[in-house]
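Record 1 of the preview.
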Amino acid sequence: MSAHLRPALGLSFGYHDSAATLIIDENNILAEHEERFSRVKFDRRFPAGALAWLAQDQSFLELESVQFYEKPNLKRGRLVKKLISDTISSKRINPELINRIQLTSDKNFRLYINQQLNKFGISPKVYFAEHHLSHAASVFYTSKFHTSAILVIDGVGEKVSTSIWHGVGNDIKKLEEWKYPNSLGLFYACFALFCGFKVNSGEYKFMGLAPYGVPRYVDVIEQNFIQIFDDGNYRVNAKRLGLDNLAGFHMKSLESIFNLKARRNDELIVQKHADIAASVQKILDKAVLALARRALRISDSKVLCLSGGVALNCVANKNLVDNLGENAVNFFSASGDAGGSLGAAALSFLSLNRKKLDPNESPFRLNHNFSKLGRRFSKVSCRQLLEFYGIPFTLLQEREAARYLAQKIDLGAVVGVFSGPSEFGPRALGNRSIFADARIELGQIHLNQKIKFRESFRPFAPIVLSEYANDYFKMSSDSPFMLRTVEVREFSRDMTPTNQEEVLEIQLRPLNILNEISSIKSKIPGVTHLDGSARVQTINSADTSFSRTLLEEFYEVSQMPVLINTSFNVRGEPMVSSPEDALNCFMTTGIDFLYLEGLVVDKNQVSNAQKEKFVSKVEED
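->
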């Protein structure tokens, strides 16, 4: 630990995607999702596993304070108003809401956090940061900007759903806010739920469905459910959508407007669902861009930092970048609630060390990209694991292993990579990734069915050597966090024209995923979505990860600098976090090779008896 700086701890838990972040000094940050330890996807519980990992660092014992990522008393006030409103309208008291109100207070959270931290032998003071301020801090303090507009959009924090801030040096000032239930995040979630996708976990599926549709319902939705004004303001018809309804969103108004029953997640997806997704995405794009321009205007800024759950919508992010410029928008790898723990820790770190930090410089000078902050494992521990199960392996030098696996991928193999510290945020960025050849026809369907065990319409993302990115994608700047889509070069589709008379019939027809994907014409069809876009991750020459080396070797073998990169997990399971997780996923899926911290395992050399020791982790998500 730096002799002159005091460490800080940030926590997020209680709603979804719990996490913990420890800032040791300006060069060292550790952060992890609780789900990676508990193996419960989007785990909302106290991050005990993440804290146990952080407690291994000596600086953890020297903590003087801990900061929670939101203010329970503020949230309590919103819940009380809701209880009164619900009781008047329904003429009954909601016991679940009363229980939440009783638990939600600064006093109760402070007591609970103290009890949990006492188990580690420490008793730091507990502070609370505003939810949207934690989001703002996470993206601004990890940016390269000295001054910036900051836009935060999510479902709801304590009371706020959208906020605009201005960051200068080490300070962040709030300029404007929109309050619950006037929420773009909940507006999007409501339509996703109508189409059969779970709130807080299925919105990215809804986004992936949109390119299969036509945005034919934009006017209908804007006439009935939302207004977006030229000055960037917006107004959601919260009452009609039931956005303030604890028991769930209202589906009847949507069913009436679209003449379609709300879809259960086990029912077929029809064309109308895709058209609704395309329409809602188009509206979100419009609203986010209008808000971004408003944020730039009222803060008198030229660049923008974007955070909150809606900042994970890479299609809306593409629209921002296309309109504002590639170097004018900054994203953070963990824009959702998990990232709030880093924002809370950053605010605490600045408060503790403000007099010792240069206000004209970024408080953090990490020599990586703020995306790989989690735990790592030694080659020795990985070897011991394989020997325990009697799994044959080959020990290779990194470059040699990368060359060997690149040759296998060129022949059609799928490779799981477990190397270095785990990613912080929902995207696999090379250290906990599954790689495959992006040139494979219908690769999306094969990987979804044989590896991920998930819906066939869900696309895969490319990882590309940054020096060749512009050869395959229309982009001129890096995209390290896989948080925006870009256009794929030399893309086309074989499409049959649709007569207006056929539209009604087609609307209720199940999606034919095979036909749709077969229509794609691209040099890299495995990562090209139906609209000719791809959610790109660039990896630059300064990166020292194994995934960079693998890409370099694949380029040498194939003259192709692009690979499919998808998270190392199966449907319903969090990203693998330990060697045991990686081995289990490898053994129970169609992955052909496993790279485990320098050790290479070939599935063909594993006996059926050895495979039977492992159990699939596939669950509903």
